[in-house]
Specification:
Rossmann fold, 37% helix, 290 residues, alpha/beta, 7-stranded parallel sheet
C-alpha cells in the first residue's frame, strides 16, 4: 500500500469546538417539559463518540436534524464537519467508566442514548485485562441503561403530575452496540466474553425495561460486523457506511434488532439467539422490582 499525499491545509479551518464540559452540569432545559419530535429535534447522546463509528453516527444524526451530545473519555475537543465541510454543533462532555451516576442530570434531557463505548485487549488475559473488559464493555453500559431507565421514569412521572393531558415526549430509546462478537468469534476472548455478557444483560432487562413490555424505553440492539476503527484497523467495512445502515434499519425500518455485517450466518443466528434468550429468561425469571 502506498502512502497518499496529505491534502493541503484548509486556509479557512472550521472553528474548534469548546473544551469538553465537566460531568456535574445542569440539565439542558426543563426535563419535564412535554414535547414531541414533530416540534423539536431530539437530543441524542453517544458514548464512545471519539471513535470512528461514534463520529460517523453523530454525522448521520446531524443530517437528520438531531441535537448532539458527544460523550468521550478524552480531553481533546471533538471537531466534526459535515459533508460540505461545515462544523457540526455538538455538546462535548467528558466522563469516565465508573462515574455513570454523574450523568443523571444530563440524561434527563436525552431522547436517544447510544451506548457505543468499548475496549479490545486482544490477546491479554491477566486480571487487569479481565477487569477492564468487563467494566468497559459490559457493566458500564448496563449501569447507564439502568440509570437512563430510572431518569426516564422520573421524567414521565413529573410530566404526568405537572402537565396532565398534554402530549408526552416520544418513548426514549437506548441503542446498545453489542457487536457480532456476541455470538461469534472475534479472535479476542475477553472481548467476546464481555460482549456476550452485555448482550445477555440486555435480553434479561428488556423483559422489564422495553416499551413493548410496559417499560419506559425503546431498546435497539446493534450487532455490527468488523468495520475499520482503532479497535479493529483491518475491519472489512467502512464506519460511515455502517452508520448509514444502522440509521436506515433503526429509524426508517424501525428495527429493534439492527444487524450490519458481511457474514450471512449472523442474520440467521442472531435472531434465533435473541428469541431463545427471551423465551428462556421469561420462563425462568420474574419481575421483582424496577
Amino acid at each position: 500500500m502506498t502512502n497518499a499525499e496529505p491534502p493541503p491545509a484548509n486556509p479557512n479551518p472550521p472553528p474548534r469546538q469548546p473544551p469538553p464540559q465537566d460531568l456535574r452540569i445542569a440539565p439542558l432545559s426543563n426535563p419535564a417539559a412535554p414535547r414531541s419530535r414533530g416540534t423539536q429535534p431530539p437530543w441524542v447522546a453517544v458514548t464512545g463518540a471519539g471513535g470512528s463509528f461514534g463520529r460517523a453516527l453523530l454525522r448521520r444524526w446531524h443530517a437528520r436534524g438531531a441535537q448532539l451530545i458527544a460523550l468521550t473519555s478524552g480531553d481533546v475537543p471533538l471537531d466534526l464537519v459535515d459533508g460540505k465541510g461545515h462544523p457540526i454543533p455538538l455538546r462535548h462532555v467528558r466522563w469516565r467508566v465508573g462515574e455513570e451516576q454523574e450523568l443523571a442530570a444530563l440524561l434527563a434531557e436525552v431522547d436517544v442514548l447510544v451506548l457505543n463505548h468499548g475496549v479490545n485487549v486482544h490477546t491479554a488475559r491477566d486480571r487487569a485485562a479481565v477487569e477492564c473488559s468487563l467494566e468497559v464493555n459490559a457493566l458500564s453500559s448496563w449501569r447507564l441503561l439502568e440509570l437512563f431507565a430510572t431518569v426516564v421514569g422520573n421524567r414521565r412521572n413529573a410530566v404526568g403530575a405537572e402537565a396532565p393531558g398534554s402530549s408526552a415526549r416520544p418513548l426514549p430509546e437506548v441503542w446498545l452496540n453489542t457487536s457480532e462478537a456476541e455470538i461469534q468469534l472475534a479472535v479476542s476472548p475477553l472481548y467476546e466474553i464481555s460482549k456476550r455478557l452485555v448482550g445477555q444483560l440486555l435480553s434479561l432487562r428488556a423483559l422489564d425495561l422495553a416499551g413493548a413490555a410496559g417499560g419506559p424505553l425503546r431498546l435497539r440492539r446493534l450487532v455490527l460486523g468488523p468495520f475499520r476503527s482503532s479497535l479493529n484497523p483491518i475491519g472489512l467495512m467502512d464506519a460511515d457506511w455502517v452508520a448509514g445502515e444502522v440509521m436506515r434499519q433503526a429509524l426508517d425500518w424501525n428495527c429493534g434488532l439492527v444487524i450490519v455485517t458481511p457474514n450471512p450466518l449472523t442474520y440467521l443466528l442472531m435472531p434465533l439467539a435473541t428469541l431463545s434468550r427471551w423465551a428462556y429468561f421469561r420462563l425462568t425469571t420474574r419481575a421483582s422490582g424496577p
